[in-house]
Amino acid sequence: MNNLLLYVATVLIWGSTWLAITYQLGEVDPLVSVVYRFALASSVLLVFCLATGRSLRFSPGAHLFMFLQGASLFGINYWLFYLTTEHLASGLVAVTFSTVVLMNALNGRLFLKTVIQPHVIVAAGIGLTGITLVFWPEFEGFSLGGSTAIALAMGAAATYSASLGNILSARNQLHKLPILQTNAFGMGYGAVLMLCFATIGGYPFTFDWGVPYVASLLYLALFGSIAAFGCYLTLIGRLGAEKAAYASLLFPIVALQLSVWFEDYQWTAQSLTGLAMVLLGNLIILKPARKPRPVPETAPAQPRE
To answer: Is residue 292 one of the residues assigned to a domain?
Structure first.
C-alpha cells in the first residue's frame, strides 16, 4: 500500500474513533476498557501471526523494546486520554493531542538524532493554528481551575507518552523488528500493564453487554488499534515520526464531519478557515523534499605545455 492510502486510512479510522470512544465511557471504568481493547487486539494479531506462519521468536532485548512501545503507545497514553476526555471538551483534547507533531520532531532529534526540517515546523504551526480556530468556541468559556489544570496536565502527559511510543516504533523498525509482530506483543504488554494498574488500584472488572459498548469495543480493537496502528506505524518507518504525526491534525476534522451527520454540528466561516489552514499545513508537510541539484563536473585542467 502506498503512503497516501496509508495516510488516508489512518486519518479516516482514527477520526472516527473519537465518536466510538464516547460509547466506552460510562458503566466500565476507562482503565478497564483500555485493558479489554488491547487484550482483544493483541489476541487477534497473535492468532493471525500463528495462522500465517510468522515467526514469534525474538530476543529478550527485542521484547524489552516491544514492552516499552506497548506501555507508552498502547497503554498509559490511552488511559490518560480516556480520563482527560471525561473532564475536558473534545476540542481541548484534540488541540492537546495535536501537539504530538512538535513533540515527535523534538523527540526524534533527541533520541534518534534526526534532523528537524524547517518546513515541518512551519506546517505544524499552521496546522495547530488551524485546529485552534476550528475549536475556538470551546475555548471561550475555558477557565484554568484546579480540575481543568489537572486534566490538561494528563492530556499533555498522554500526548508525550504517545510521542515516545512513536519514537520507539521508529527505533524498532530501524532494528528490523516487524510491525505486525511488534504490535501484537506491544498491545499485549500494554494490556497486561494496565491490568496490573487496575488490579493494584482495585478497579472493578465490570462489562457492559449493551450493543453500543460491545460494537464500539470491537471497532476500536479491530480497526482503531490493529488496522490504524498498522498503517500509522508503517508511515513512521517510511516518512519519519514527525511527518506521520501530522495526521493527528486531521483526526478532529473527520470527527467534526461525523458530528455534522450524527450530532447536528454546523460548520462556520471560522471553522472552515481553520480547516483550510490544516489542509494547507498538510500539503506542506507531505510535499516531497527537493533533491539537491547535482554539482556539474568540471573538466580537469589541461597541463600547460
So the answer is: no
Query: Would you say residue 299 lies in a domain?
Result: no
Check pLDDT > 50 for residue 305.
no
Cα 94 to chain centroid, rounded? 11
Task: Using DSSP, state whether 129 is helix, strand or coil.
Answer: helix
pLDDT at 268 over 80: yes
Q: What is the DSSP string of 57-125?
A: ---HHHHHHHHHHHHIIIIIHHHHHHHHHHHS-HHHHHHHHHTHHHHHHHHHHHHH-----HHHHHHHH
The torsion angle over the Cα atoms of residues 148, 153, 159 and 164, rounded to 10 degrees, is -170
CB-CB neighbours of 8 under 10 Å: 13
Mind listing the pLDDT tens digit for each residue in 225-239?
999 999 999 999 998
Average pLDDT over residues 84-105: 80
Work out the number of other CB atoms within 10 angstroms of the CB of residue 114.
17
Q: What is the 8-class DSSP label of residue 222? A: I
**pTM value?**
0.84
Residues 6 or more apart whose Cβ sits within 8 Å of residue 61: none
Q: How many structural domains is the chain composed of?
A: 1
Range of the domain at 51: 3-286
Does 293 map to a domain? no
Q: Per the domain annotation, does 42 fall within a domain? A: yes
pLDDT tens-digit readout, 26-54: 899 999 999 999 999 999 999 999 999 99
pLDDT digits (tens, 9 = 90+) for 173-200: 999 999 999 999 999 999 999 999 999 9
Residues whose CB falls within 8 Å of the CB of residue 242, separated by 6 or more in sequence, listed in order: 101, 104, 105, 108, 114, 116, 117, 120, 124
